[in-house]
Write a structure and sequence with these properties.
Structural class: alpha+beta
Helix content: 55-70%
Largest sheet: 5 strands, mixed
Oligomer: single chain
Order of helices and strands: HHHHHHHEHEEHEEHHEEH
Strand order of the largest sheet: 2-4-5-7-6
Number of helices: 12
Shape: elongated
Strand content: 5-15%
């Protein structure tokens, strides 16, 4: 409703004002064409000024009353109703709504009676105008309240989902901290023993199988430990392009080996985000590797970084097989995976990393067309680029 009303206020009101001015001139109603045009221009201009300033709001009403008097057309009533609706759209008190309605009705009726005969009919019309205006603004206020409640419900739903996901990750984190510490130390001992046994020739053909399974268990516990770290260790302002460039350098050879193309699309201006750089690079590596796995044939993965106001936006887009709608709902749940040998923790860890940086992660996918992960981070305004960051990295990646 807010966008619709803004369009109405910024487009319809000026057009209707021009119609009033032209009609008054054509019907020879105006007492001064020059002053009518001047006041009309000022009133139309006031429609584009911030109405949160109280002085400007009262100035608009005064200009409208003057325009009304010079035009001497009762059709100006619609302009009064528009200004009144703009006033009461955020007002909750019925007493204040009544007072504002009465004020605008008095101003309109006073001007109208100044150029019309004060007959009983014309005077009683004032009461009819008040009731009509009051009924209209109450309906407008009701619609505004309904829209507000709807937005709050959506926001509450999103917050509840975020809280549920955070609680789930917290439980997993507690499990990971206890489980990983119990398993990892004896796992290291077993691995060392197997290596010694292999050197002595006692394991034979079972060696590779045992080592593969132990390596897989070690990778699993390493991913578990990502959940148990309560905070980010090294938060500093870094260019987001630098992280993307680092991930590009690390993964381009792997992409070429699999027959894929990895591309970067960066803005020249450094977009600084307060971050733990290693964590962001790790998150990007997870996303790009998933993109490689999603493309059964040769495909393209694009890492893009851009600025939207005070928000830094990074996207990772692939041309793979896409993700079905049922899978999208579970994508960030720990242990959910569609890979035969996946742990189901990569995207959950990536989502947690983004959330720890005060950002958001969204995914959009079309089956047989590809998937796009969109990451948004608050920009570190006023921060300077760290000297350790290679400013040319983005150019190298883009080339």
């Amino acid at each position: 409703m807010g966008e619709l009303f803004t369009w109405y206020y910024r487009v319809f009101l000026p057009l209707y004002s021009v119609f009033i001015i032209a009609s008054s001139i054509l019907l020879l109603k105006t007492t001064s064409t020059f002053l009518l045009l001047v006041v009309g221009a000022l009133f139309i201009g006031s429609a584009y000024i911030n109405k949160d300033i109280r002085t400007v709001r009262w100035l608009s009403l005064a200009l409208l009353a003057t325009l009304h008097w010079y035009s001497q057309l009762n059709w100006c009533n619609m302009l009064y109703l528009t200004l009144l609706a703009k006033e009461v759209v955020t007002v909750r008190s019925i007493v204040r709504i009544s007072a504002l309605t009465m004020l605008y009705t008095i101003v309109y009726s006073s001007v109208r009676l100044s150029y019309m005969e004060p007959t009983a009919y014309n005077i009683l019309v004032t009461g009819a105008d008040f009731f009509a205006s009051f009924g209209l603004v109450v309906v407008i206020r009701y619609l505004a309240e309904a829209e507000y409640v709807k937005r709050r419900w959506r926001q509450s739903k999103l917050e509840a989902e975020a809280a549920a996901r955070a609680e789930k990750l917290r439980v997993v984190g507690e499990l990971a901290a206890g489980m990983a510490h119990e398993i990892r130390n004896p796992l290291t001992t077993v691995k060392g023993f197997v290596q010694v046994a292999h050197r002595d020739g006692n394991l034979g053909r079972w060696y590779e199988l045992i080592m593969d399974e132990i390596t897989r268990m070690n990778e699993l516990t390493s991913e578990f430990l990502q959940f148990s770290k309560p905070s980010l260790a090294n938060m500093k302002p870094h260019p987001l392009q630098g992280c993307a460039s680092r991930a590009f350098k690390l993964l381009e050879p792997e992409g070429l080996r699999q027959g894929h193309t990895l591309r970067c699309d960066f803005q020249e201006e450094a977009i600084l985000v307060r971050m733990d750089r290693d964590k962001i690079v790790q998150m990007l590596i997870n996303l790009v590797k998933n993109a490689f796995d999603a493309m059964e044939e040769s495909g393209v993965v694009t890492i893009a970084v851009r600025r939207e106001g005070t928000i830094a936006v990074m996207t990772v887009e692939d041309t793979g097989k896409g993700i079905p709608a049922p899978a999208l709902e579970k994508l960030f749940d720990p242990f959910y995976t569609t890979k035969e040998h996946g742990t189901g923790l990569g995207l959950a860890i990536s989502h947690k990393i983004v959330a720890d940086h005060g950002g958001t992660m969204e995914v959009r996918s079309r089956v047989d067309e590809g998937t796009t992960f969109t990451l948004r981070f608050p920009i570190a305004e006023g921060a300077s680029v760290p000297a350790a960051i290679d400013a040319s990295s983005a150019d190298e990646a883009d080339g």
